[in-house]
Design brief:
Number of strands: 9
Order of helices and strands: HHEHEHEHEHEHEEEEH
Number of helices: 8
Oligomer: single chain
Largest sheet: 4 strands, mixed
CATH class: Alpha Beta
Distance between the termini: 54 Å
Radius of gyration: 19 Å
Shape: globular
Strand order of the largest sheet: 1-9-6-2
Length: 279
């Protein structure tokens, strides 16, 4: 395991001590963070060096409540007309107590909505949230939707975040959602992190995508925001089990295959939308 963790840390570009992976993730004691994982750097080291104060916590609760209300209102104005491959979710959860959902960063909005709605099936969805004080807003929002928070950053606390991902998957049966191209891109490039995490944990990767009849694209990262009252089709791919041993060439090939899979899922969702519009 130690060699695997070292390889994973190097492959992700993390230079932290790989022994940090082997420490047990600590659960939060603050009621606001119930159900979440707390990264070991949280409340010890943040970029802004700020600390949570009673006044700031009160303000954050108001912002989180407003954010949750707006998201629910927005979700309610759009209509999911079909989920393609919903049986793949049942198949994945039957094969393992937790999975690794993956989707492009721009598909976050409705891919995460679908995943949160799988709680009755036993899916415990996790999100990586910054360990900064500002990240507490995200923790509050995620908790109100029934999700779980993993405090960390792939940029600043990467090795520790990956360790907590592993702990969440294997010991708490939390399924951490991963955007393989990340918010900083490059867009539509499937980085190896999710594959290596699947190899370590032996949990299947579950690819997702969605298409909207009408949508806005955020200029800097092409994040998809469906226009209110848009029709949505979600596509779920077959779970992909990564073998315990994987040569570098096979890893690179699998990255390309999964990138193509995500593209094909989007094309399938878009084709379904067009078919319904023409009917």
């Amino acid at each position: 395991m130690g060699q695997n963790l070292t390889f994973v840390a190097q492959a992700w570009g993390f230079h932290d001590n790989p022994r940090l992976f082997c420490r047990r993730a600590r659960m939060p004691t603050d009621p606001e963070d119930a159900g979440g994982l707390r990264n070991t750097l949280y409340k010890k080291e943040t970029r802004s060096k700020r600390r949570m104060t009673p006044l700031r916590r009160f303000a954050w609760r108001i912002v989180a409540a407003l954010g949750v209300g707006l998201i629910k209102l927005f979700w309610g104005t759009c209509r999911v007309v079909r989920v393609i491959g919903d049986e793949h979710m049942a198949q994945a959860l039957k094969s393992a107590p937790s999975v690794i959902p993956v989707y492009w960063h721009q598909h976050q909005l409705f891919a995460s909505k679908y995943l949160l709605e799988q709680a009755p099936r036993g899916l415990k969805l996790g999100f990586l949230i910054s360990p900064s004080v500002d990240g507490d807003i995200g923790v509050m929002v995620v908790a109100r939707f029934g999700g779980h928070s993993i405090r960390g950053s792939t940029t600043h606390t990467g090795a520790r975040a990956l360790r907590d991902y592993y702990e969440a998957l294997t010991k708490l049966n939390i399924s951490p959602s991963i955007t393989p191209d990340g918010p900083k891109g490059p867009r539509f490039v499937f980085k190896p992190g999710a594959i290596l995490l699947s190899q370590m944990s032996q949990r299947p990767i579950l690819p997702l995508a969605f298409a909207a009849s009408r949508a806005w694209l955020i200029a800097w990262d092409k994040f998809v925001i469906p226009v209110p009252f848009a029709r949505i089709v979600i596509a779920v791919g077959a779970p992909r089990q990564v073998p315990r041993t994987l040569q570098p060439a096979a890893l690179e090939r699998l990255q390309k295959e999964l990138a193509v899979e995500l593209k094909n899922l989007f094309v399938a969702a878009l084709a379904e939308l067009n078919a319904k519009a023409a009917a």
